[in-house]
Automatic annotation (TrEMBL):
PROSITE patterns: AMP_BINDING (PS00455). Residues 84-468 form the AMP-dependent synthetase/ligase domain. The keyword Nucleotide-binding applies. The keyword Acetylation applies. Its cofactor is Mg(2+). It comes from Methylovirgula ligni. CoA binds at R192, G193, G194, K195, T311, S523, R584. Residues 531-609 form the AMP-binding enzyme C-terminal domain. It catalyses: acetate + ATP + CoA = acetyl-CoA + AMP + diphosphate. This is Acetyl-coenzyme A synthetase. The modification N6-acetyllysine is found at K609. Mg(2+) binds at V537, H539, V542. GO terms for molecular function: acetate-CoA ligase activity; AMP binding; ATP binding; metal ion binding.
């Protein structure tokens, strides 16, 4: 029904935007037919090079040989592009507006100040032995020092691995071990919604679990809370920066040298270290930031993500700063001190562009219009959404209530792996349909295939793949290139497998239908069902666990866990609570199961494979449509699961 709704591009936007419909057609065509010409021009225009590249695209998705290189013989540096080159023209312009959890605390950091702080931080890293190619783990709250830390790594060619501050010591330990960081950057505590987050204490616990890897911890003093101190290992940033020079020349870095690792969940196994490299990533983040948000000089831009996720990397930091933008960084949560906080911040800093996740919109929708309407929001011009499919009801509310029916909404589909937006409207080009991510960005060739890889033409529904490379895509899984090939290029040889399903309508617009693998999307956070299962079975009373997603009004998807107890242990409400707390502690609050159902038996085939399709249906309370259960080793377990589900 809502599919017939279309919001055309307004005259004002067609006039203002960098890209209008004619330009889009022409540029899109060139980007596909002449990628070398198109991307070569963009890379020369948008980035400063220490040594210019002579080759543009050298990529293959196979079958057989998979390799991805862009601008491979060029030499540049991320900090040069995001900071140094802006100093002449906009040294005194604000680069970062920081808004604290406590509304009385905010800061403005100019490009010149950013330059000095990042340079000093980089010298601290050097003084502690960090060199080009080393990995550095960053476990920080949303404070400016998180940005300085990332840019300091980039300045000296070190590879950062940011771990979201909401992850547990165990999750942090696993990520440290995987990439082998010798140095870790954290802060005493974080602040969220008035509550303290014990970051340094988590680091201490994590480092006990993986000894002899990290030997230096740089600590940012933020709350001033009491922390344990390990002499010789722990160093205060504010003391260290006093001992170093404010000058730190940028280290020349190859276009294909790694910029960062970011761990993300997949269908199986432990989280993968997604590796992004330098020039192609930055180019793609900057170009999408400029065109999708139609960023013009002087605009105030706010992305509410955390730097622990790729959205924070590409669209709080790297894309905006490469464009010389003013980017807002928010430490807090949407509901503190009041449910009007987002809109108060918009008014306080005169934000023009606001980019958030559907889950935030849905949770604010629950409180009604009044907390929004009592604020002005007159500065807002454009809205964005990312992280999960946005339901048309939430889209309409965002459009009408938050944007006063004046601001177009960019529903941006992309992934940690893609570096930047792949399917998205452009404000001067695309008629908007609530719930559709609409059309491909320049250089992106989406296709819909069926289960056996046959490409579907015209209106179709199936699996979303991308037929050719773009500069921002990931290059490998850290330490496991084979896993990279297997995960993304083995399912449909010659194409990048996104893991998402999609439908293309008669206008050629794409509608993302959600993951087709065992990944669930909880409040826009990606979670592997296998990770939650392995946390559950690590509990002393659990014999077996199967985890599936189920529709959740606010979170998009919730986590449903079926748990089989070890013989001799009885189900109880207390144990149910204990198991939720256990997963929270093992992985982090974002992985807490919403529902735990005790299941004496799980539906398995005769070869022992759990039939998740059945578990998903039961979790959704869809008992009629279970499909064929005749191949189950013991079809009777299904009856029992349904009976127990009805009691919950
Ligand atoms: C998965 C990627 C990309 C930054 C945040 C999440 C889902 C993302 C949309 C959207 C429908 C979306 C997909 C994708 N997703 N954006 N606009 N519409 N679904 O990054 O953690 O790597 O998750 O998020 O399922 O595969 P991520």
């Amino acid at each position: 029904m809502s599919e017939s709704l279309v919001y055309p591009v307004s005259g004002e936007w067609a006039h203002r935007a960098f890209i209008d419909a004619d330009k889009y057609q022409a540029l899109y065509k060139r980007s596909i037919n002449d990628p070398d010409g198109f991307w070569g021009d963009e890379a020369r225009r948008r980035l400063d090079w220490i040594k210019p590249f002579t080759k543009v695209k050298n990529t293959s998705f196979g079958p057989g040989d998979v390799h991805i290189k862009w601008f491979e013989d060029g030499v540049t540096n991320i900090a040069l592009n995001c900071i140094d080159r802006h100093l002449d023209k906009r040294g005194d312009q604000v680069a970062i507006i920081w808004e604290g959890d406590d509304p009385s605390r905010s800061l403005k950091i100019t490009y010149r100040q950013l330059h000095e702080r990042v340079s000093r931080f980089a010298n601290v890293l050097k003084a502690h032995g960090i060199e080009k190619g080393d990995t550095v783990t960053i476990y920080m709250p949303m404070i400016p020092e998180a940005a300085y830390a990332m840019l300091a790594c980039a300045r000296i060619g070190a590879i950062h691995s940011v771990v979201f501050g909401g992850f547990s010591p165990d999750s942090l330990a696993g990520r440290i071990k995987d990439c082998g960081s010798k140095l870790l950057i954290t802060s005493d505590e974080g602040l969220r919604g008035g509550k303290r987050v014990p970051l340094k204490a988590n680091v201490d616990t994590a480092l006990e679990k993986v000894p002899f890897i990290v030997n230096k911890v740089i600590v940012v003093k933020h709350t001033g809370g009491d922390i344990h101190w390990e002499k010789g290992r722990d160093f205060w940033l504010h003391e260290e920066i006093e001992n170093v020079s404010p000058d730190c020349p940028v280290t020349p870095v190859g276009a294909e040298d790694p910029l960062f690792i970011l761990y993300t969940s997949g269908s199986t196994g432990t989280p993968k270290g997604v590796v992004h490299t330098t020039a192609g990533y930055l180019l793609y983040a900057a170009m999408t930031h400029q065109y999708v948000f139609d960023y013009h000089d002087g605009d105030i831009y706010w992305c509410t993500a955390d730097v622990g996720w790729v959205t924070g990397h590409s669209y709080i930091l790297y894309g905006p700063l490469c464009n010389g933008a003013t980017t807002l960084m928010f430490e807090g949560v949407p509901t503190y001190p009041t449910i009007s906080r987002f809109w108060d911040v918009v008014d306080k800093h005169k934000v023009n562009t606001f980019y958030t996740a559907p889950t935030a919109i849905r949770s604010l929708m629950g409180a009604g219009e009044e907390p929004v309407k009592k604020t002005s929001r007159a500065s807002l011009r454009l809205l964005g959404t990312v992280g999960e499919p946005i339901n048309p009801e939430a889209w309409e509310w965002y459009y009408k209530v938050v944007g006063d029916s004046r601001c177009p909404i960019m529903d941006t589909w992309w992934q940690t792996e893609t570096g930047g937006h792949l399917i998205t409207p452009l404000p001067g080009v695309t008629p908007l349909k609530p719930g559709s991510a609409t059309k491909p960005f320049f250089g992106i060739k989406p296709e819909i295939v069926d289960g056996s890889g046959v490409v579907q033409e015209g209106p179709a529904e199936g699996i979303l793949v991308i037929a050719d490379s773009w500069p921002g895509q990931m290059r490998t899984v850290f330490g496991d290139h084979d896993r990279f090939i297997q995960t993304y290029f083995a399912s449909f040889p010659g194409k990048y497998f996104s893991g998402d399903g999609a439908r293309r309508d008669a206008d050629g617009d794409y509608w993302i239908t959600g993951r087709v693998d065992d990944v669930i999307n909880v409040s826009g956070h990606r979670m592997g069902t296998a990770e939650v299962e392995s946390a559950l079975v690590a509990h002393e009373r659990v014999a077996e666990a199967a985890v599936v997603g189920f529709p959740h009004d606010i979170k998009g998807q919730g986590i449903f866990a079926y748990v089989t107890l070890i013989n001799g242990h009885e189900p109880s409400d207390k144990l149910r609570k204990d198991l939720v707390a256990w997963v929270r502690q093992e992985i982090g609050p974002i992985a807490s199961p919403d529902i735990v159902q005790f299941a004496p038996g799980l539906p398995k085939t005769r070869s022992g494979k759990i039939m998740r399709r059945i578990l998903r249906k039961i979790a959704e309370n869809e008992f009629q449509a279970l499909g064929d259960t005749s191949t189950l080793a013991d079809p009777a377990v299904v009856e029992d699961l349904i009976r127990e589900r009805k009691k919950l």
